[in-house]
Amino acid sequence: MQQNKSVTEFILLGLTQDPIRQKMVFTIFSIFYAATVMGNLLIIVTIKFSRTLGSPMYFFLFYLSIADTCFSTSTAPRLIVDALSAEKVISYNECITQVFVLHLFGAMEIFVLVLMAVDRYVAICKPLHYPTIMRRQVCIVLIIFSWIGSFIHSIAQIALALKLPFCGPNMIDHYCCDLQPLLKLACMDTYVINLQVVANSGALCSTSFVLLIISYFIILHSLRNHSAEGRKKALSTCTSHIIVVILFFGPCIFIYTRPPTTFSMDKMVSVFYTIATPFLNPLIYTLRNAEVKNAMRQLWRVKIS
Fold first, then answer.
1. Other CB atoms within 10 A of residue 31 CB
2. CB 94 within 8 A of CB 11
3. Residue 90 β-bridge partners
4. Three-class SS of residue 89?
5. CATH number of the structural domain spanning residue 157
6. Quick one: DSSP state of residue 302?
7. In angstroms, rounded to a whole number, what is the distance separating the alpha carbons of residues 151 and 203?
8. Structural domain harbouring 190
């Protein structure tokens, strides 16, 4: 990647400079990341090989787990390694690559969550048309468009990052490269670029969140006409989705929809949606979902028999 900046590398300050706390960061986030990868891979394998999880909801959950695994991998390994490293150096090209990967899989997670809400809306509000509307070919096309949309969003972030000249300080007060911490180091007035970040990432997060809340409000309103058993099952599924949406979009909106100001909680908020949410998603979707748990048991019995 060609660049003509005077700064060729950055130093990531991480979550803390205290040696004892750095060891705590290494231990805690190593456990979090290992559990995230194992939990999401378990869901991926279960859906891939189970004969009972063939519905569109699990088709989309499969891709949510892929996005979660890659999204967490874009930041967690470096955070873990840097916690025990004397020099937390990242090259300019590596930094730009991290911005790309972070936003690629972050946007993919947003689009998949929206598709899961659409799936629930059609299943609950238009049950007779559900097999026709959410047939396999349609789901595949929707996922393809999600990947394309994620790629376009990520390219837009890179285009903004490449506009930034760096000629002075190279210490990033963060544990990963993203547009917000890079804007603080740029040797230029970043007001316009920050507005573009808000119009891009901020609008994506906010618009998707509003659409999701409206869709779930409509779904919950329509449940009045369902039987008690149908209401219970639909509420269980929708509650899981709503929890994931709030956990993911709350921190995203806080980070990407505001002027270029710094708060002491920024890094911890970023940790929550880049590392904690991918860790919690498998727990939410397995502990609250009897079908997934039963499919896992069946696969386990087949494996040991």
1. 12
2. no
3. 10
4. strand
5. 1.20.1070.10
6. H
7. 16
8. 9-304
Indicate whether 294 belongs to any domain: yes
1 in any annotated domain: no
CA quadruple 37, 253, 78, 2: dihedral sign = positive
Look at residue 241 and tell me if it is in a domain.
Answer: yes
Tens digit of pLDDT at every position of the chain (305 positions):
444 457 889 999 988 888 899 999 999 999 999 999 999 999 999 999 888 888 999 999 999 999 999 999 999 999 999 998 888 899 999 999 999 999 999 999 999 999 999 998 998 888 889 999 999 999 999 999 999 999 999 999 999 999 999 887 889 988 999 988 898 898 888 889 988 988 899 899 999 999 998 988 888 888 777 777 777 777 777 787 888 888 889 889 988 887 766 666 888 888 988 998 999 888 887 777 778 888 888 887 776 65
Instruction: Report which of 12, 57, 30 is spatially closest to residue 241, judged by C-alpha positions.
Output: 57
DSSP state of 272: I
Inside any domain, residue 2 = no
Q: pTM of this prediction?
A: 0.90
Q: How many domains does the chain have?
A: 1
The CA distance from 229 to 80, in Å, is: 46
Nearest-angstrom CA–CA distance, 236 and 29: 30
How far lies 17's CA from each of 21, 120, 184, in Å? 8, 45, 20
